[in-house]
Amino acid sequence: MDEETHERIRAAIARVPRGRVASYGDIAAMTDAPSPRIVGWVLKEDGGDLPWQRIVRTDGTVAKPQQLPMLRDEGLEIPGDKIDMKRYRWAPDEGD
DNA sequence: ATTTTGACTACTG
DNA sequence: ACAGTAGCCAAAA
After folding, report:
1. Which among A1, A11, A38, A49 is least buried, having the fewest CB atoms inside 10 angstroms?
2. How much of chain A, in percent, has pLDDT values that exceed 70?
């Protein structure tokens, strides 16, 4: 894992706005990460100061259940345990 | 050097 | 909707 990719992944995650989410694959695509797994790995190792609750699986489920209350706190409506990706998924061209 | 272990995804039945 | 499988890739054992 080279330093540059690592930091790019962190930067991309930091750009996800409050009230939106992005998938691991989204971050990977934005940052040239070799695989979505790497994004998960970076979050585990060096994600303590990032909004990691905004990174979810592409099907709307979350890796860590505590993300749900945190995201609801940011204003997302999540009736069950799955996030409505069509509604909340963030794209970098939305105004950032 | 090989195997195992994940904050992953896509495909199949 | 749900389980199994196969690709994926860095780290640690």
Report:
1. A49
2. 100
